[in-house]
């Protein structure tokens, strides 16, 4: 059974000449069209995620992985043209064609997102609890006591000190802010969570604690996830299957153990050798 299925994902920034996809990609060695200068952030990307499983998307900066994450999370970029097909079990039609109301409902229910940059995912002037409560209110929760109890439970699950719930988020450490983002993403029991570079800006020891926390919750709650990272260690720890991207294209995919231990594509081999 497939929970999330995406095919032909594409995002292009700039005025396309119409030949951008053919003139870019791994074989061309660039994601910028030599004819018109448009950037093909990603193209021809297809993937699927099963219930309770984790898909890793790995690649260097500029490989297109964050653009894929944004499309899967139903985030609309201020500029750029997007196309493709995203389907979520239990929901009708191509979600990329959904209207604002449907996207809003899905983003506050079935799909959770942990942004790469904390300021994109949290209002730092709000309290930590307020950031999570905002997601619940957007999903239709109205009882103050229920919201408060749910936030408290989420703080305990994500290992954020409950006594800090009413403190401004800007007073939290980087690791705590990341945990609040994860709590917010999990607040409405989504079917799938998209994590875009979940360890950005964190010290190595803090990264390990955040990843261990998420792995525990993901397994306990059996939630599906897509983890986007430039860090092979993050993907190796969390993902059942891995997709490797370069210059906006998928160059290799397979079970994570196989990709890490027996990479077929030269670029994947280079990535792995660079961290050994």
Automatic annotation (TrEMBL):
Parts of the chain that traverse the membrane: none
InterPro entries per record: AAA+_ATPase, ABC_transporter-like_ATP-bd, ABC_transporter-like_CS, P-loop_NTPase, PhnK
* UniProt-recorded name of the protein: Putative phosphonate transport system ATP-binding protein
Task: Give start and end of each ABC transporter domain.
Answer: 23-272
One GO term under biological process is: organic phosphonate catabolic process
What Pfam families does UniProt report for this protein, alphabetically? ABC_tran
**Its Gene Ontology molecular function terms?**
ATP binding; ATP hydrolysis activity
Q: Cross-referenced SUPFAM superfamilies, in alphabetical order? A: P-loop containing nucleoside triphosphate hydrolases
């Amino acid at each position: 059974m497939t929970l999330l299925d995406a095919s032909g994902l594409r995002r292009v920034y700039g005025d396309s000449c119409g030949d951008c996809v053919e003139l870019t990609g791994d074989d061309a060695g660039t994601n910028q069209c030599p004819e018109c200068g448009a950037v093909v952030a990603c193209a021809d990307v297809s993937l699927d995620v099963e219930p309770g499983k984790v898909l890793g998307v790995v690649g260097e900066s500029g490989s297109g992985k964050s653009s894929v994450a944004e499309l899967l999370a139903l985030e609309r970029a201020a500029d750029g043209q997007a196309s493709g097909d995203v389907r979520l079990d239990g929901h009708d039609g191509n979600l990329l064609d959904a209207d604002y109301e449907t996207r809003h409902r899905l983003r506050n229910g079935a799909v959770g997102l942990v942004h790469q940059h904390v300021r994109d995912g949290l209002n730092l002037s709000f309290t930590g609890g307020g950031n999570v409560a905002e997601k619940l209110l957007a999903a239709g929760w109205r009882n103050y006591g229920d919201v408060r109890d749910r936030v408290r439970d989420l703080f305990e699950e994500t290992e954020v000190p409950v006594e800090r719930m009413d403190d401004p988020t800007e007073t939290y450490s980087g690791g705590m802010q990341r945990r609040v983002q994860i709590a917010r993403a999990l607040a409405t029991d989504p079917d799938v969570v998209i994590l875009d570079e979940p360890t950005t800006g964190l010290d190595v020891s803090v990264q390990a604690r955040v990843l261990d926390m998420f792995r525990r919750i993901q397994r306990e709650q059996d939630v599906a996830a897509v983890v986007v990272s430039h860090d092979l260690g993050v993907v190796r720890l969390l993902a059942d299957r891995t997709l490797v991207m370069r210059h906006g294209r998928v160059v290799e995919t397979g079970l994570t153990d196989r990709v890490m231990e027996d990479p077929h594509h030269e670029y994947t081999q280079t990535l792995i050798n660079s961290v050994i």
